[in-house]
Amino acid sequence: MNMHAKQEPLVVVENLVKHFPVKIGAFGNQSAVVHAIDGVSFAIYKGETLGLVGESGCGKSTTGFALLQLHKATSGSVKFDGVDLSKLPAKDLRAMRKRVQIVFQDPYSTLNPRMTIGEALAEPMRVHKICPEKDIQGRVARLIRDVGLNPNVANRYPHEFSGGQRQRICIARALASDPEFIVCDEPISALDVSIQAQIINLLMDIQEKYNLTYLFIAHDLAVVRHISDRVAVMYLGKIMEIAGKDELFGRPLHPYTKALLSAVPEADPDVERGRKRIILQGDVSNAIDPPSGCRFHPRCAHARPMCAGEVPELEDRGEGHFVACLRVAEIEKETV
Ligand SMILES: Nc1ncnc2c1ncn2[C@@H]1O[C@H](COP(=O)(O)OP(=O)(O)OP(=O)(O)O)[C@@H](O)[C@H]1O
Ligand code: SF4
Ligand SMILES: [Mg+2]
User: Fold this and answer.
1) Radius of gyration of the CA atoms of the chain, in A
2) If you write DSSP's letter for every residue of 126-144 in order, what string do you get?
3) Which pLDDT does position 281 carry in this prediction?
4) Closest C-alpha residue for ligand 1 atom 4
5) How far apart are CA 72 and CA 95, in angstroms?
6) 285 CA distance to ligand 1 centroid (A)?
């Protein structure tokens, strides 16, 4: 039985498409379309963390932005708590914004340099009428404490903090409107390695304390494995595989996932010595003119002529493990 059968989905994404019209050519006089995401479907269950991984440019941030309606989707739907966000009138969408937040990669550009930390945290509380005016100061102090800083920093400005402290403040700001769902878009990629673990631990602590659900976007597979309950793997605007993290890392089925995971070093030196790395052929294809059929076929060692003609759909391989590969059954047999 699916481990989430009894759990309620908070976010349901169906056939989401986001195309960006762009100008190309030496003089920028030709029109083209970037197929940033092309028919993405998944659910995120209340209280879980869904990790989203894939190479640069595969559409991870666009998925997060479209999900929060920061990009208007070309087609498809995003339901939050049963409500189709793309159909909400502007007034209701504004009210919904309090429930869904985002933490970006770069804490420097997220904070207004002219606002003190206290003002930056109080603003969303006032906009969304989270509490009476008299309670705001106390709430700000509590938030600052909850993200591991001293409440007396409320009168200071963003430039007075280190990168890690600033990311803590961005997390506090995301929490200020009392959200239920947060998209974390590479929240530690811009930070020193030494403080990355602290921010991950903070995100995990506040998830429990504030009953949060996360979409966690990252390049670093070890981090994704640590923080996620389930993981989705994207390639050129499509989800190729989605499964519980132990299932995905222990039994990857899609040739692209296998290649991605084969690049992760093992902590155990004996295992590391025997690790076989799968070197992908060629570069990531162009999102302006994506390959026909399976988008991974020009780089897939298992590709057959049919892979260029038919688009694989996500297929249930049991235990909540979904794979989009036309040859998944044969490949599974070959590798047993
Ligand atoms: N505003 C935009 N206009 C045109 N193309 C865009 C825009 N935003 C993103 N794209 C393109 O859409 C595709 C997906 O981009 P996206 O930023 O979602 O990728 P990503 O997986 O988040 O990459 P990264 O890991 O580098 O952050 C890329 O080809 C990108 O160039
Ligand atoms: S459908 Fe074909 S090209 Fe795509 S991953 Fe499967 S075997 Fe490879
Ligand atoms: Mg991105």
Assistant:
1) 21
2) HHTT-S-HHHHHHHHHHHH
3) 75
4) 20
5) 17
6) 13
Residue pair 266/275 in contact by the 8 Å Cβ criterion? yes
Q: Give the CATH fold of the 9-99+179-335 domain.
A: Rossmann fold (3.40.50)
Residues of the chain whose pLDDT is less than 50? Answer: 1-5
Give 3-state DSSP helix, strand, coil % of the chain, rounded to 5. 40, 25, 40
Neighbours of ion ligand 3 (CB under 5 A): 61
Domain boundaries, given as residue ranges, for the chain: 9-99+179-335
**Ligand 1 atom 13 nearest Cα:** 36
pLDDT at residue 293 in the model: 97
Ligand 1 atom, smallest distance to 63 CA: 18
Tell me, in angstroms, the distance from the centre of ligand 3 to residue 54's CA.
Answer: 10
Q: Whole-prediction pTM value? A: 0.94
Query: Ligand 1 in contact with 56 (CB < 6 A)?
Result: yes
- Residue 287 Cα, ligand 1 centroid: separation in angstroms? 9
pLDDT at 336: 57
CA dist., res. 95 & res. 99, Å (int)? 8
Which position has the token pair 């899609």? 254
Of 41, 11, 51, 76, nearest to 239 by C-alpha is 41
Kindly tell me the burial class for residue 70, based on how many C-beta atoms sit within 10 Å of its own C-beta (0-12, 13-18, 19 or more).
Answer: middle
Amino acid at 256: Y
Note the pLDDT of residue 276. 75
Residue-level pLDDT at 239: 98
Token pair for 245: 């993290």
d(CA 217, ligand 3 centre) in Å = 8
